[in-house]
Design a protein that fits this description.
Layout lengths: L16 H10 L3 E2 L2 E2 L14 E2 H16 L5 H13 L13 E2 L6 E3 L2 E2 H16 L5 H16 L9 E2 L10 E2 H18 L3 H18 L9 E2 L25 H17 L6 H17 L11 E2 L5 E3 L2 E2 H18 L2 H18 L10 E2 L17 H8 L9 H6 L10
Antiparallel strand pairs: 1-2, 3-4, 4-5, 6-7, 8-9, 10-11, 12-13
Length: 413
């Protein structure tokens, strides 16, 4: 199947038993004003803050679930849209706070960061595709904030500001840029405005076909304001949850999938997109998978491919499954089915928590549950996508594909 063919709608649902199990766990995150960070047993964390990215991701998940006919999902998606439009939003300066306190009353960090703003746009666009009340208005505001503050004149992502959008942080990051690409693919589909896809292509071309390709696809994550790589950034804090030192193999896998989705979304896609997607995938396996002799992906590696942080994160396996599914759909090569089978087997053996729900978010180097980088199970975004995306075409994006009733049989998951 070519990148631009659209499979016929089928009777095979995109919701799997594992997807149902994840959603059952996630229901407990609903609190009076948004969604809470859940602990290992699926309980709102006492005294824990409420990051905007958690609220947005949960809204995105429940929007997809509502399109899949899950009972109660529409109400949860509407609850999320309402929280993002009110509690998490700055009524004075616009945009969205980074996080709120445990009650949702006050911002614990009033700064404005691209990472949660990308997820607000993703959530709003997905909810709009699902017909959630208020989502179209939220999407219009989110798109306006992205254009005004987080996409510069060259279409590259500005990392962060103070509350009033007056001072930029002297840092740029590949992580926020990656999730901006993810969001813009959906925004472009839902608004039917291809310019958003072109902006996403520009971000990917700069960071992947430019920077990553010149670093043997070991993508630097951290940059100066003029996008000079900072290879030693956070060497003293190698296990930072958002800005770790070194290369992050899991992000190579996410980028791999996104490049294929970009290719499918564009009427005239450059030939480097599928080539670079394959290189990223192969590099992630080479340096990340069983890199220290044990099953699993290590969190980070040094610039020579040596493991730095050997913890195993659930989200990396989820993204590996998504990338393998995308490459299998794009190429038809059975090797990618093999990798998906391998990683689902690993997830079932080590990650799925059949006693308390969801997936263990972090394992140590011996594949035992750990909490050195992450505590609890804050959301089901990555794992749920692993159960849904392989059933859908590469384009349009998941919310639009579900709205159109388009899925494809994936018998081998």
């Amino acid at each position: 199947m070519s990148a631009h063919e659209r499979p016929e709608a089928t009777a095979v649902p995109a919701l799997t038993p594992e997807g149902v199990r994840l959603l059952d766990f996630a229901r407990a995150a609903r609190v009076e004003r948004g969604f809470a960070w859940l602990d290992d047993r699926g309980r709102p964390t006492p005294g824990g803050g409420r990051p905007t990215w958690v609220a947005a991701r949960m809204t995105y998940v429940w929007s997809l679930a509502s399109q899949l006919g899950v009972a109660g999902a529409s109400a949860l998606a509407e609850h999320g849209v309402r929280a993002l439009a009110t509690d998490h939003r700055d009524p004075v300066h616009g945009g969205w706070y980074d996080a709120l306190d445990a009650r949702g009353d006050e911002p614990t960090d009033p700064g404005k960061r691209a990472y949660p703003h990308a997820f607000v746009a993703l959530a709003a666009a997905s909810a709009a595709a699902a017909g959630v009340p208020g989502a179209r208005e939220l999407l219009a505001e989110a798109a306006s904030v992205l254009e005004a503050h987080f996409l510069d004149a060259d279409g590259r992502v500005v990392e962060a500001y103070d509350r009033a959008f007056t001072t930029q942080e002297s840092y740029r990051g590949a992580n926020a840029s990656m999730h901006m690409v993810e969001a813009l693919l959906v925004v472009g589909d839902v608004l039917d405005e291809p310019r958003w896809h072109q902006t996403a292509l520009g971000i990917a071309e700069h960071l992947i076909h430019g920077v990553a390709r010149h670093h043997d696809f070991l993508l630097p994550e951290h940059y100066s304001p003029d996008w000079e790589p900072l290879p030693d950034y956070h060497r003293e804090r190698p296990d930072d949850p958002f800005r770790p030192y070194g290369c992050t193999p899991g992000h190579l896998l996410e980028w791999s999938r996104l490049l294929l989705q970009l290719e499918a979304a564009l009427p005239q896609a450059p030939a480097w997109l599928p080539d670079d997607a394959r290189h990223l995938f192969e590099t992630a396996i080479r340096v990340g998978w069983e890199a220290d002799g044990a099953p699993g992906f290590v969190y980070t590696v040094d610039w020579d491919g040596t493991p730095v942080v050997r913890s195993r994160m659930h989200w990396v396996v989820a993204e590996a499954i998504g990338a393998a599914g995308a490459l299998h759909l794009r190429t038809g090569e059975r090797v990618f089915r093999h990798w998906s089978d391998t990683w689902w087997a690993y997830a079932r053996e080590h990650l799925l928590d059949l006693e308390h729900g969801s997936w263990h978010h972090e394992l140590d180097a011996a594949n035992r549950p750990a909490a050195t980088v992450w505590t609890g199970k804050p959301d089901v975004y990555h794992a749920f996508q692993a159960t849904v995306l392989p059933h859908l075409p590469l384009a349009p994006s998941a919310p639009e594909a579900l709205r159109a009733g388009t899925s494809r049989p994936v018998r081998w998951l």
